[in-house]
Write a structure and sequence with these properties.
Elements (H helix, E strand, L loop, with lengths): L7 E10 L2 E11 L4 E5 L6 H9 L6 E6 L2 E2 L10 E4 L11 H11 L4 H14 L15 H13 L5 E5 L7 H18 L2 E5 L3 H7 L2 E6 L2 E6 L1 H6 L4 H6 L4 E10 L2 E5 L4 E4 L9 E6 L5 E2 L5 E10 L3 E8 L2 E8 L12 E5 L5 E3 L3
Parallel strand pairs: 3-8, 3-9, 6-7, 7-8
Antiparallel strand pairs: 1-2, 1-4, 4-5, 9-10, 11-12, 11-14, 12-13, 14-20, 15-19, 16-17, 16-19, 17-18
Helix pairs in contact: 2-3, 2-4, 3-4
């Protein structure tokens, strides 16, 4: 048996398609009961990596170990992994009960045990009473739950979800996120979740892997991926940000970070290692204040409900600023002059 910290271990995985390296030397240790998300742009390797874990693709190099056993040689049905596909892949002519039962029949589970496990699985996804319905009689969210129940009934050690919420509307996606999170907690399920939606990944995951060109760019807790991106790609891909290039200057017992068009005070520790830097400043960390040190003019306004995003021109450089829409507060207009206060502790990235 494996210990908890490397319940699922991916070791130096490579996958080639002709001259393209789709998975490039990926090693990850995943804990039992952990929900980990793979995110990245189209073609980054996230679905390929998921399918390698599930046995639907064979890696060209490297090994996969699950619960202390190497599973590389096993076909998908013998890996103790359950895959939920983007299109759910339900049998349209079968009832919910028959869809969930299918895998158990393949495994030749006895009828009494089948019935018990189907009842439990449908209860886990809150679909009791839907046994006789066909997939066409269900909503998208209900079809998604059937697809998950069909995996849970086989009692997998790892649940693999390939963009499972992409076909649902925004409100239903939020509900299903909570459902998946609830199942993880209640069943101590190990879940790998592939999504193109960064907000979804940040909200649902214990850890997030950001992929680009088959390589891991960052593997970390969601808050660290957002607040402390390891490189410019991660900073730009996860959420929205301002990346400011500049130099550190000492001025009147202060340390200033000076860009081409403006400067702001930062803590002196940032200038210790280098004279140059790239500051990652999220829009919500910049404040609109009457006594702000940096002056600009609003060039564009995007209303987002709970907040308004202002695009502010500062001597020709455009900065994004998010302002919380508190009830009763007035809003700025295009071409309004504005003063900004920048954080003294932005995140700096060093890329060689």
């Amino acid at each position: 048996m494996s210990n908890q910290s490397n319940y699922l271990a991916l070791n130096n995985l490579y996958k080639y398609f002709d001259k393209i390296t789709a998975v490039n030397n990926i090693s990850i240790d995943i804990e039992q009961g952990e929900l980990i998300s793979f995110i990245g742009p189209s073609g980054c390797g996230k679905t390929t990596l998921l399918r390698i874990i599930g046995g639907f693709h064979k890696q060209d190099e490297g090994t996969i170990n699950l619960d202390g056993q190497q599973i590389d040689h096993l076909p998908p049905e013998e890996r103790s992994t359950g895959m939920v596909f983007q299109n759910y892949a339900l049998f349209p002519h079968m009832s919910v009960f028959k869809n969930v039962e299918y895998g158990l029949k393949v495994e030749k589970v006895k009828k009494e045990e089948r019935n018990r496990r189907i009842k439990d699985a449908l209860a886990q996804v809150q679909l009791e009473g839907y046994e006789d319905r066909k997939p066409s009689e269900l909503s998208g969210g209900q079809q998604q739950r059937v697809a998950i129940a069909r995996c849970l009934v086989l009692q997998p050690k790892v649940l693999l979800l390939d963009e499972p919420l992409s076909n649902l509307d925004a409100n239903l996606r939020m509900i299903m996120r909570e459902e998946i999170r609830r199942l993880k907690e209640e069943l101590n399920l190990t879940i790998i979740f592939v999504t193109h939606d960064q907000e979804e990944a940040l909200s649902i995951s214990d850890r997030v892997i950001v992929l680009k060109d088959g390589k891991i760019q960052q593997l970390d807790r969601p808050d660290n991926v957002y607040n402390q991106p390891q490189n410019e790609f991660v900073a730009n891909f996860v959420g929205h940000t301002n990346i400011l290039e500049g130099q550190f200057e000492d001025h009147d017992n202060k340390t200033l970070f000076k860009t081409e068009h403006f400067s702001f005070e930062v803590q002196s520790k940032f200038s210790n290692s280098s004279k140059n830097g790239k500051a990652v400043v999220r829009p919500e960390r910049i404040s609109i204040m009457p006594n702000g040190d940096v002056e600009g003019k609003i060039s564009k306004i995007v209303y987002n409900g709970s907040f308004t995003r202002y695009f502010v021109l500062i001597s020709g450089e455009e900065i994004m600023v998010d302002d919380f829409n508190a009830h009763g507060l007035g809003h700025y207009k295009r071409n309004d002059p504005i003063k900004l206060a920048f954080p003294t502790d932005p995140h700096f990235i060093n890329e060689n």
